[in-house]
């Protein structure tokens, strides 16, 4: 049956658009020979899917590149525009040699993304449909809102904001945990044309202050405290400290609207500054449940968001309204094969781009039912996610490899004791997902039934760039597969020459797509230098990538992290996934260290499965694993036992810190304040010589 599927692919016309590498996949032979690596969607899945064959994908992708204006206009027309965009759907300059980088989509079109998420859906009859299922930190604490109720709450807050003097174009900082008030706050800002800047409510006062100083908000939205797992975090105290720091820098914020989160603390225990601080519940419910929409230009800014800072100082990424709206809605719909009956859960926090595009905007533009979870995936135990899946009958579950790996460390019974039969599609984002984690996710969590959308994208790209369409293509564990509609990834060599066919190099993008960021806030020069100057004529992602003989894309990690061993360029992802395929290894992170003979040697930090002790024998078998899977040249020179790894608050490994530990440059660790748990650094240093 699979082979027949492959054969029918080989009947496709060879002119599959500009993405010539895709032609490789239609040569049935190569696929058949690698059949073990291919995971096909079931016939039932493909038949009901929005895109159900490679051929259908290729036709749509070809059209999206041949006629981007027509392709995206057709989709944009499904939304409400107060006034249609001008004649030019897209205008861009992506070549620094031709002048300033400049991107515009649907310029002249007048719309509002909040209206399209809420009012439009309510008018279409979805008023009584559940918009949000909210699950609290504790098992028995939950709530929900229909689309009508959500609209009312958004309007009340929007009316309050307006009344407090927030105007179109003003910045508003949101420092809230995953309460329903967080998406409500984002939508309320969008409704009145204010520019929201969500700061993940796990950041320190310093990090928050930095961002406040950068965007100078009129108002900040927060809550007094939150419970995360067994811990209580006093967010208001962090905000107070941040506002002290920022006012010393000359940036003062007039209003701090504070949600009273009574499940975590009391008003009496919350420090208060009269005149500045206002209780949300005291003012917002008094406002009317309708609020006029501020109609904005497609190119008016929607939000400002800082990147997660894995590679250094976070960048203030600016997204605008129209293109972002069309792009997030479309990517959500196709990459998850969305159906109106789905219940969708993305575990990301709204403090990250994933929470912007795929908790709030993308799903709500589609009128989807979204689960918002306040707590953590291993509280009270490692079965919490699957408990929630069963409770709300979640059908699409989107998460990050770091979560998959952390749950893998624990007993499988935490998964198997829950039914999970509502699940239909799984998703992954944030880092390359190593094949062993992919297989665990696929086989165990999804009962070998649910395709995995391994979505490659960035804060900068606004939405998915390379992603499976779950019903269209057979998947390869660990590969993000093929480009989304309108996206032309290219792999270039050091000199910036495009390389065709099977190859590896620097991942760039040619041309523009509607969800692209328009600038770095207040620093267009850094925008050009970071993204458009390294390889003139292209957008440079900063990631390394290879393309196999079937045209599948494999992300290999940050190019800054590439290790050069005796002239072999080795991506971190490859070695890490070889180590992680060892049954006793839970997670690994590798970095390069200076090596007298080889130039660079491979230094591996390894976290073991719960309860497994370190031993010399285990060390040897880990090294052997890499030798066997990749080759002797990639064998780690050093294994460093790591009970925990330094990660950003979004769960990504910070290799720049590991590099310093590996080369014992401990005085140069740099800024470690954005780490989720800075104490792992000391722990690693103390284990350096074990
Ligand atoms: P900074 O740019 O400040 O260092 P960051 O790059 O971690 O932070 P994000 O925009 O949140 O901030 O992350 C985007 C990056 O995450 C990508 O460039 C890529 O390295 C990685 N990534 C995301 N999804 C995937 C995926 N599916 N496969 C491989 N890598 C991924
Ligand atoms: Mg980045």
UniProtKB/TrEMBL annotation:
Q: Which GO terms describe its molecular function?
A: acetate-CoA ligase activity; ATP binding
| E.C. numbers | 6.2.1.1
Domain (AMP-dependent synthetase/ligase): give its ranges: 126-512
Identify the residues that the record assigns to the AMP-binding enzyme C-terminal domain, covering every copy: 574-652
Q: Tell me what reaction this enzyme catalyses.
A: acetate + ATP + CoA = acetyl-CoA + AMP + diphosphate
Q: Give all residue intervals belonging to the Acetyl-coenzyme A synthetase N-terminal domain.
A: 57-117
InterPro entries noted in UniProt: Ac_CoA_lig (IPR011904), ACAS_N (IPR032387), AMP-bd_C (IPR025110), AMP-bd_C_sf (IPR045851), AMP-binding_CS (IPR020845), AMP-dep_synth/lig_dom (IPR000873), ANL_N_sf (IPR042099)
Q: Which keywords accompany this UniProt record? A: ATP-binding, Ligase, Nucleotide-binding
Classification via PROSITE patterns: AMP_BINDING
Q: Which domain of life is it from?
A: Eukaryota
Provide the family line: Belongs to the ATP-dependent AMP-binding enzyme family.
Q: Which NCBIfam families match?
A: Ac_CoA_lig_AcsA, PRK00174.1
Q: What is this protein called?
A: Acetyl-coenzyme A synthetase
What high-level taxonomic lineage is stated for the organism? Eukaryota, Viridiplantae, Streptophyta, Embryophyta, Tracheophyta
